[in-house]
Amino acid sequence: MLPQRRETASLVVCEDDTTTLELLCDHLAADRFGVLPAPSASDALRLCRYNHPDLLLLDLTLPDASGLDVLREIREADGIGSRFNPQLPVIVLSGRGSDEDRVRGLECGADDYVTKPYHYGELRARIAAVLRRGADQREGPCRVGDIVIDSARRKTWVGEREVQLANKEFSLLRLLATDPSRVFSKRELLDQVWGYRNPGRTRTLDSHASRLRRKLDPEHGRYVVNCWGYGYRLLDG
Predict the structure, then answer these.
(1) How many helices (H) and strands (E) does the chain have?
(2) pLDDT per residue rounded down to tens, the chain (237 residues)
(3) Which pTM does this prediction carry?
(4) Residue 10: phi, psi to the nearest 5?
(5) Residue 225: beta bridge partners?
(6) Angle, to 10 degrees, between the axis of helix 167-177 and the axis of helix 204-216?
(7) Are 67 and 60 in contact (CB under 8 A)?
(8) Helices in 84-220 by DSSP H: which ranges?
(9) What is the C-alpha to C-alpha distance for residues 215 and 230, in angstroms, rounded to an integer?
């Protein structure tokens, strides 16, 4: 009797180069992922709409549309009529490695951004990390002082007031809330929220933290404490 195969997660792999697509799918299948190959943007959208994958690996240069348009289509979905899951984890795989390309991909809603050529072992680790974050999002709401964070519905309240947050603002808040009194370094936050391995002199974190602080407490700015020269924490003390 043959052993039963247990797949850890299902992945749509969108890549227009046939050889690269086949090799990547072979590696992922060997690591017990269920793989759904998509050589075009239309294939990726169809598979994401009807097969409900756990994660999308997305190339940006596709024969029929930009990968960024695929990403926007998913992120702008209502989760009902469109049948897309707007919270579907997405990792961009691209030969475009400039800071501008990475920022654009992450701001469009990518959970991580990996440049080609990549090491498969690192890609596998990044897939596992993004899937873990997705599992955390399915947990119940958590409370930190007056703040309530519902990761499953991506909703936030301060007291009775619901606060509308952009994707990266929410991700930043959720990470800070995992250990509210701990000071997270800027490098750590940029790596875990934006996927920046070598952040350089970007002001992305500071601008998002400032907007998040104003949204949570427009009058007093009590939350998202800036620990000058190092990073941020959620609460004083």
Answers:
(1) 8, 12
(2) 655 556 788 999 999 999 999 999 999 999 999 999 999 999 999 999 888 899 999 999 999 999 999 999 999 886 555 677 888 999 999 998 888 899 999 999 999 999 999 999 999 999 998 988 766 555 567 888 899 998 777 889 999 999 999 988 998 998 899 888 889 999 889 888 887 766 567 788 999 999 999 999 999 888 999 998 889 999 854
(3) 0.59
(4) -105, 135
(5) 233
(6) 80
(7) yes
(8) 99-107, 120-137, 167-177, 186-189, 204-216
(9) 22
CB 84 within 8 A of CB 44: no
- Name the token pair of 30: 């060997």
The residue written with tokens 């596998």 in the block is 124
Residue 94 corresponds to which tokens in the numbers above?
A: 């691209």
Locate tokens 């603002």: which residue? 169
